[in-house]
Amino acid sequence: MALEHAILVSLLEQPASGYELARRFDRSIGRFWTATHQQIYRVLKRMETDGWVTAEEVGQDGRPDKRCWSATAAGQSALADWLRAPVQPEAVRHELAVKIRGAAFADRAGRADLVAEVERYRADHEAVLASYLAGERRDFPAPDPGDARAALQHVVLRGGIAYERMVLAWLDDVLATLRDLAR
């Protein structure tokens, strides 16, 4: 997937300034497709040149004008073409998993250090799960099955929730295994 497609999806959900778009990536889209603010602005310019997006100058009181970006018909067409293309499974690159396998060659102190790292990593995933669950309570208190946009946003969020729960269960297994080896 290209960043262009993630931006098109976001702009079709709601037009936005580059800053607002970057904040959406920081809050939600970024959990499954990351981009820096600079990448977003660079890609928006390229998409504008390609005719996929257009920008409207919006005046602001006491602040500089901002550009509010929207997807064009050409952008919608490009997204429709991309949606029809097959998706290949992604290769997983997981540094922690390699470290866990490498712990077979570490001494007790090295494995103890790894336990601390897995606990820290687990805490990070626990925080992400808590934010997803809070977002679900906030954004989807009473889902409307007739609202396709909300239903699809919610199913992606549920996928993130399920993923975080799976990672936490795996990390609990890793910690139990490391602790068993320490005995």
Automatic annotation (TrEMBL):
Protein name: DNA-binding PadR family transcriptional regulator
Domain annotation Transcription regulator PadR C-terminal: ranges: 92-179
UniProt GO molecular function: DNA binding
Domain of life: Bacteria
Source organism per UniProt: Micromonospora palomenae
Residue span(s) of domain Transcription regulator PadR N-terminal: 7-80
SUPFAM superfamilies: Winged helix' DNA-binding domain
A Pfam family it matches: Vir_act_alpha_C
Gene3D superfamilies: 6.10.140.190, Winged helix-like DNA-binding domain superfamily/Winged helix DNA-binding domain
InterPro entries (alphabetical): Tscrpt_reg_PadR_C, Tscrpt_reg_PadR_N, WH-like_DNA-bd_sf, WH_DNA-bd_sf
Key words of the record: DNA-binding
